[in-house]
TrEMBL record:
GO BP terms: L-serine biosynthetic process
Broadest EC class assigned to this enzyme: hydrolase
InterPro entries linked: HAD-like_SerB, HAD-like_sf, HAD_sf, PSP
EC number from the UniProt entry: 3.1.3.3
One Pfam family cited in the UniProt record for this chain: HAD
Sorted UniProt keywords: Amino-acid biosynthesis, Hydrolase, Magnesium, Metal-binding, Serine biosynthesis
Single GO MF annotation: magnesium ion binding
One annotated Gene Ontology cellular component of this protein: cytoplasm
Keyword Acetylation: no
Species this protein is from: Acidipropionibacterium acidipropionici
Name by which UniProt lists this protein: phosphoserine phosphatase
Membrane in keyword set: no
Length: 288
C-alpha cells in the first residue's frame, strides 16, 4: 500500500527541512519540491510504509518549524472530493463570539468561556448559550461591524481556489453565527456553509440562539450530509479544525488536519499543520 509523506516549512527553515527529509529520499519512488513565496514543501511517494515512526518524527520536526504529514490510501493516490473546514481560529484568526463580546462590553467574560470550551472543558452548546446571553441588547449593526473586523487566515481564498481546481468541494461549518459566516463564505467562494443563528428582534440581539446549535456532533453530521449530497466517498473527505468542537467531524472524515490547533486536537488528528498559511494545505495533494 502506497504512502505519501509531505513536509511543509517556512522559507527560513530550509536547513531543518532538508535534514528531516533526508531519510525519505532513499525510500521514495517519486519526489517533488514545491516552492512558494511563504512556504516550501517536499512530497514523497513511498511504495510501502515509511521506515520511520511518523508520529515521533512529526513531534520532533514541529519543534524545528517543520510539519510532517503522512497520507495513506486512498488519499495517498486519489484527490480529495470534499474539504470541510471549521471557521473561527481556522479560516479566520479571530473568534466571532469574542468580537461580539467586545462590542457588547463583556469581552473578558466571553473570552474566558470561549477558551474553556475550545479546550474541551465545557459542553459547547451550554457554553455558547451562556456567551450569547451576554449579547442581549447588542444592535444588529454591531454584529455586521464585527463581521467586517474578522481577520481571514492567510491563504484561505487560495485554498478554496485550489480545491476547486482539483474538482473538490469546499464547505465551512461554524460554531459562530450565520450573519458573520455568510458574507465570508461568499467572499471565499465556498460551496456551502452552516452556522448558528442569533435571534434578533427589533434590530437587537435577544441573547438567544435560534434552532439547532452547531456543536461537535452537528459538525460531523454536516460532513456526512455534504459527502452524500456531493456524492463523495467519506474516505475522500478531509476535515480541518483547531478545537475540541471539531473532533467528531475530524473522526468522521477520511483524513483530519489540525490547523494551528489546540493540543487536544493535535494529539488526535491524522496530521498537524503549524504553518499559519492555508494555501500550503493543497501541497498535500500535489502529486510527486
Amino acid at each position: 500500500m502506497a504512502t505519501r509523506i509531505v513536509l511543509l516549512a517556512p522559507p527560513d527553515r530550509l536547513a531543518p527541512l532538508r535534514r528531516i527529509a533526508a531519510p525519505f529520499w532513499s525510500q521514495a519512488g517519486t519526489a517533488r519540491a514545491l516552492n512558494r513565496q511563504n512556504w516550501w514543501a517536499l512530497s514523497f511517494r513511498l511504495p510501502g510504509q515509511p521506515t520511520q515512526e511518523i508520529g515521533e518524527l512529526s513531534s520532533r520536526a514541529r519543534s524545528e518549524g517543520v510539519d510532517v504529514v503522512e497520507l495513506r490510501e486512498p488519499l495517498a493516490t486519489w484527490l480529495p472530493g470534499l474539504l470541510v473546514s471549521d471557521v473561527d481560529s481556522t479560516i479566520t484568526r479571530t473568534e466571532a463570539i469574542d468580537l461580539l463580546g467586545e462590542a457588547a462590553g463583556r469581552a473578558d467574560e466571553v473570552a474566558e468561556v470561549t477558551a474553556r470550551a475550545m479546550a474541551g472543558e465545557l459542553d459547547f452548546a451550554e457554553s455558547l448559550r451562556a456567551r450569547v446571553a451576554c449579547l442581549e441588547g447588542l444592535p444588529a449593526e454591531a454584529v455586521d461591524e464585527a463581521a467586517r473586523a474578522t481577520v481571514v487566515t492567510d491563504g484561505a481564498r487560495e485554498l478554496v481556489q485550489a480545491a476547486h481546481r482539483a474538482g473538490c468541494r469546499f464547505t465551512m461549518v461554524s460554531g459562530g453565527f450565520t450573519r458573520m459566516v455568510e458574507p465570508l463564505a461568499r467572499r471565499l467562494g465556498a460551496d456551502a456553509f452552516v452556522a448558528n443563528d442569533l435571534e434578533i428582534v427589533d434590530g437587537r440581539c435577544t441573547g438567544r440562539v435560534l434552532g439547532e446549535i452547531v456543536d461537535r456532533s452537528a459538525k460531523a453530521r454536516y460532513l456526512r450530509r455534504w459527502a452524500e449530497k456531493y456524492d463523495v466517498d467519506t474516505r475522500l473527505t478531509v476535515a480541518i479544525g483547531d478545537g475540541a468542537n471539531d473532533l467528531d467531524m475530524m473522526a468522521a472524515a477520511g483524513m483530519s488536519i489540525a490547523f494551528c490547533a489546540k493540543p487536544v486536537v493535535v494529539e488526535t488528528a491524522d496530521a498537524a499543520i503549524s504553518l499559519p498559511r492555508m494555501d500550503a494545505i493543497p501541497a498535500l495533494w500535489a502529486r510527486p
